[in-house]
Specification:
The chain is an alpha+beta fold. The chain is built from three helices and four strands. Strands 1-2-3-4 form a four-stranded antiparallel β-sheet, with helices on one face. It is elongated and about 50 Å long.
């Protein structure tokens, strides 16, 4: 399983956080997803439906972020993104998800969660 479909730093806005002030309005997050699959068939036939369609994966991740998911933690949000990406097609075998939250800490560029799921 060495083939991957990757999108880097998908910019989304969502309500997320443990503190009340964080939940007042949507905040920016950056999502990077590596979706493990085989692209052999799609590469030979030139048919994207024989792989993982990255446009569909991005739209589903964005829709999840913009939904009323009710989550508070970045950890739970990353799990949700992983489930969405794995659910795009049965051809998605595993995912590596990194979610970054810019300006979450005063003296850091961002905080992030990095997970791998099958």
């Amino acid at each position: 399983m060495s083939d991957k479909i990757i999108f880097h730093n998908l910019q989304v806005r969502t309500v997320l956080g443990n503190d009340g002030w964080e939940r007042n309005k949507p905040q920016p997050l950056l999502i990077t997803a590596e979706i493990y699959t085989s692209i052999v068939s799609a590469g030979k036939t030139d048919k994207v439906y024989e792989s993982v369609h990255y446009g569909v994966a991005c739209k589903k991740a964005t829709a999840f972020a913009e939904s009323d998911h009710g989550l508070q933690s970045l950890e739970a949000f990353a799990e949700g993104v992983a489930a969405v990406c794995l659910g795009v097609t049965e051809r998605a075998l595993a995912v590596h998800i990194v979610v970054r939250k810019p300006r979450a800490l005063l003296h850091a560029e961002y905080v992030s969660i990095d997970i791998f799921r099958t």
